[in-house]
């Protein structure tokens, strides 16, 4: 009911704006997160509103009683009281804000419920969906109830459109003129006629001829009437198909032609299901009582994964929670998105729109990286080769020949232009000759002295 009636923001986080400390000096409007960390939300989200209103007030009174140091009329001059207040201030404030949030949400839901006459609207919707009245007998005078609600100013236009849609499905189609009369009586705009016509795309027959011999469509699951001692509320007469499907699956009665197996079904699987059902229905007087068995905390439970294509409602998630608690299974609900009444009507109306205007996610162009990431940087300008300094080769050149001196030289020594160098050379030759003659003379004398004895 919270998601269907209140403006809850369901994005990355589920949030809701509420007023804290209303009527006090520190009054503020705060957007609070609703999630698994919110203990109050986890405990109450699957309960009926009638039960929530009673239990929520009792739990809040217990919470205030467990924290008497935060009472408004408490004497705060006591030192010990102040210490206790400071020690539990954070925890108390979080708990107080959580209870305030959910009390405000429950109050606003009840205001919507009364101002829009949702009790009468939902009762008529249950009759359209089941064909039974509050006493589980065949419903009568449903057309008169519909017209009466369409005349009521308290019933908003989306609820009127939804009532007409349910009535068409209940009757298996109406004459085209009757549909237009109902729309005019409800004061609906012409574009809502497209929503009604698009039901054909979902397999619902909208218009039928005057003499129609076509048999009505049989429901997928047979209606199971509640036992006489059941205290089921009149607003819960309609049982969701997903709940009946899960019950038939757990009991082994699910029709395999409608829900075929993804792998061949073996006899072992059937024996396991039969054994589990027998253990659940075992009597306390049996030889082996099963009630005394203790379940290990770490023992995993059987998992059931349900995928709903095209969206699932929050009522269907509640049905999975009830099956999980009743049959001791872990039921996981997966879907493309969660549906609310307003979102469902809008999406049915969009079925007749050109798909190019719908901006469907899978038809959007694939995201690409920015173009600048693929641009190559311009190559750097070539650097000119370093200029080599000219190397001096003067030290490599041979010295110039002494042409002037060579011009004055004479090979025979008779030249008229003898130079000092040539005269010096002649003296040197004479000295060498004189030394040679002296050596020869000394050598000859030594030889004569050596052989003188033998003469």
Automatic annotation (TrEMBL):
This is Sec1 family superfamily. Residues 426-445 have a biased composition (Basic and acidic residues). Residues 359-455 are annotated as: Disordered. GO terms for biological process: vesicle-mediated transport. Coiled coil: none annotated. It comes from the Eukaryota. Residues 406-425 have a biased composition (Low complexity). It comes from Penicillium crustosum (Blue mold fungus). InterPro entries: Sec-1-like_dom3a, Sec1-like, Sec1-like_dom2, Sec1-like_sf. The lineage of its organism: Eukaryota, Fungi, Dikarya, Ascomycota, Pezizomycotina. Residues 379-388 have a biased composition (Pro residues). Belongs to the STXBP/unc-18/SEC1 family. Gene3D superfamilies: 1.25.40.60, 3.40.50.1910, Syntaxin Binding Protein 1, Chain A, domain 2. Pfam families: Sec1.
